[in-house]
Design a protein that fits this description.
With about 350 residues, the chain is α/β, with parallel strands linked by helices. It has helices at about 15-30, 40-45, 65-80, 90-100, 120-125, 135-140, 160-175, 195-210, 220-235, 245-255, 265-270, 285-290, 315-320, 325-345, and strands at about 5-10, 35-40, 55-60, 85, 105-110, 125-130, 180-185, 215, 240, 260, 275-280, 295-300. Helix 1 (about 15-30) runs parallel beside helix 11 (about 265-270) and helix 7 packs across helix 10 (about 245-255).
Length: about 350
């Protein structure tokens, strides 16, 4: 009988990217299985067309506010007929969808600070307590319940020809015909935003000391204003990126020498693409959300005490404690290593 596996990871974009290795591991272990993923629209762009994925269920935030929409979704999931669900979010809404799918085996995390919350430990019926810290490793650990012991990490994110052409044309129009850095000024939470003048100082440092121009990427009107401020204060060492979709941004990131940003979807996208990444981590634990991979650098000076966890989205103290020199020093170290590597390979 054909195995049918449904991954449940609804949001956010960064966490969805960090869950992709679970998809790749499942495909490697079950090459003949049907694998689907249920997600919200924000993350769907980056999952569409993934070679390991057969089907994608895309829902909106209002799905849980409408009995009719939720009932229709239940029917669609049960028609797809999964025998197994993998709940990587660990909330009531994610585990509820796993339960509504009718799957006999519903895998999720035991109760922890960030995982196995709310009613998920009641709705999932196979629970795992991971000793790992990082989201990527915890997801792979969970697959041990299915007998998957291979810890190989793969993302295998696709690239579409239209996005590749967009990236090439955009970079040519901006005069970025050689190596360049990407600086991402935005974030989903106020507590993850680093001030634009500090990004400008980093862009100036990269230009002065490494001859490396910076492309400043953004999403939405507010981030565009912040990005424009960086360009204005960086003495012609940076360029304002055009408006992009997530898949177009993915193609721009692929072509960058290094990526610098806070704990956001684009930062995790860069590390997933194998681009050397410097991630500034504010309120969340560094060990959980640092840019994945030993060649990347996570920066955190102050962390948010567990008793202040309710302030994760609003407390800007940890992010603001990160100094410009913390980031420029990481840039110097990373670029020196890259220069030495390129020299050795030349």
């Amino acid at each position: 009988m054909e195995k049918r596996i449904l991954i449940v990871r609804l949001s956010a974009i960064g966490d969805s990217i960090l869950s992709v290795p679970v998809l790749c591991a499942l495909r490697k272990h079950y090459p003949g299985a049907k694998i689907a993923w249920i997600t919200e629209r924000a993350s769907a762009q980056l999952l569409q067309g993934h070679p390991a994925l057969d089907d994608l269920f895309v829902i909106s935030k209002r799905t849980f506010k409408s009995v009719k929409e939720l009932w229709n979704l239940r029917k669609r999931l049960q028609d797809w007929n999964p025998d197994t669900t993998i709940d990587l979010q660990g909330l009531t809404k994610s585990s509820l969808l796993a339960w509504l799918s009718g799957a006999k085996h519903r895998f999720g995390f035991n109760r922890d600070t960030f995982d196995g919350r709310e009613l998920s430990t009641f709705l999932n019926n196979h629970l795992y307590q991971s000793d790992s810290n990082h989201i990527v490793d915890r997801g792979i650990d969970l697959l041990g319940l299915l007998g998957i012991q291979d810890k190989t990490i793969a993302f295998d994110l696709p690239e579409f020809e239209s996005d590749s052409n967009f990236a090439k044309q955009s970079l040519l129009a901006l005069g970025l015909t050689g190596p360049f850095a990407i600086l991402n000024v935005g974030a989903g939470w106020p507590s993850k935003i680093w001030p634009s003048p500090r990004y400008a100082d980093v862009a100036n440092h990269l230009g002065h000391h490494h001859g490396l121009p910076s492309l400043i990427v953004w999403s939405g009107d507010q981030e565009r204003l912040a990005a424009a401020e960086v360009v204005d204060k960086s003495n012609s060492f940076s360029k304002l990126a055009p408006s992009t979709s997530l898949t177009q941004l993915r193609s721009l990131i692929r072509r960058s020498r290094i990526f610098i940003g806070s704990d956001t979807g684009p930062m995790h996208l860069a590390s997933a693409l194998g681009v050397p990444t410097i991630g500034m981590i504010g309120p969340m634990p560094l060990s959980r959300v640092s840019p994945y991979g030993s060649h990347n650098i996570g920066i955190q000076r102050d962390s948010l005490p567990i008793q202040l966890s309710s302030q994760r989205k609003t407390n800007c103290g940890p992010m603001l404690s990160i100094r410009v020199e913390d980031v420029t020093s990481a840039c110097d170290s990373m670029l020196k290593e890259l220069y030495q590597l390129h020299k050795k390979l030349a």
